[in-house]
Amino acid sequence: MIDNQPKENSQEKIKYTAKDFTSSQDVRWCPGCGDYSILAQVQRTSPDLGFKKENVVWVSGIGCSSRFPYYMDTYGIHGIHGRAPAIATGVKVNNPNLDVWVATGDGDLLSIGGNHFIHACRRNVDIKILLFNNKIYGLTKGQYSPTSEKGKKTKSTPFGSVDFPFNPLSLALGAEATFVARSLDRDPKHLQAIIKRASEHAGTAFIEIYQNCNIFNDGAFELYTEKDTKPDNVVFLEHGKPMIFGKNQDKGIKLEGLNPKVVDLANGEASVNDLWIHDEFDESPARAFILAQFTENENMPLPVGVFRQIKRSTYDKDFHEQIERIKKVKGEGDLKKLLFAGNMWTVN
């Protein structure tokens, strides 16, 4: 097994730079694509995550985002459509000392990959999943995706989609992912901070990243990314702090029972002491679910940050501990004995 634990005062300790995680491959995304920013933030953050480069594995499925492993100078697997969480699970369980990351898109993860995604979450496999959500199929030239809004007109829905979209955060919370967060491609510092938080978490860490597709769905998130509109439409979640937003920090969110409400702090409608205090370590997912629903409520700002983070044993750790317990009772296994056990027929 590879030892991935940092060694104090070790001469083997290497100081990396972003260039150490940049491969020699030409990046083949459309000019202006939000994927460039996500790649840059991952490469800038990787030197500070405390793991050896040779122990890092990036896994992807199919789609624009799935080119990601080519551009990281680490080990990588470009898998098949929707199967990245399953492949990543296999890599992590086979060698728990590896740091396993998944790059995937909304079409890849939430359509054919939906089943693999929810099972990775419920098992709490120690992998990190970055969902590049642009609300469109980009690689196949602009069809509507599982996160496209109802009524979306695309090449495959010329009269408007009649589907209700998936809410990725609600799906992850419902599947009991132990770390659920959201960030934006056009907020580099915030995205870097969330990536670092995810890397420190033991278990399935899921980050939804709003990512602009400037060719087939340009401006889908400009309300939340543009300088003039972002302050009044985005609330940054910080553990233990009240939910305040607005250009002048004059708006807040109050929770009346289970009903959230935007209040005006400037006119005395409410004070800071009346506001909802964010608790990302809440064992109950109820409030995190409420926050996840803000995206479907035009009267509420978009929450970004860590929605929920809880501790739970990981699948890969439990799996290997179970094997060791069984070995102590039954001894080492014998594959040949197993294969030739039970009824046998010899065919001449």
Radius of gyration: 22 Å
**CATH homology superfamily name of the domain at 18-225 and 313-326:** Thiamin diphosphate (ThDP)-binding fold, Pyr/PP domains
- What's the shape? globular
Task: State the total count of DSSP E strands.
Answer: 11
Mean pLDDT: 94
Which regions are unreliable across 5 or more consecutive residues at pLDDT < 50? 1-11
Number of helices: 12
What structural class should be given to the helix and strand makeup?
alpha/beta
As laid out across the biggest beta sheet, the strand order is: 2-1-3-4-6-5-11-7
Tell me which oligomeric state these chains represent.
Answer: single chain
Strand content: 15-25%
Helix content: 25-40%
Query: What do we call the CATH topology of the domain at 18-225 and 313-326?
Result: Rossmann fold
Taken in chain order, the helices and strands follow as HEHEHEHHEHEHEHHEEEEHEHH
What does this structure look like?
By secondary structure, this protein is of the alpha/beta class. It is 28% helix and 17% strand. The longest helix has 16 residues. It has an 8-stranded mixed β-sheet with strand order 2-1-3-4-6-5-11-7, sandwiched between helices. Strands 8-9-10 form a 3-stranded antiparallel β-sheet. The protein contains 12 helices and 11 strands. The chain has a domain of 222 residues: Thiamin diphosphate (ThDP)-binding fold, Pyr/PP domains (Rossmann fold).
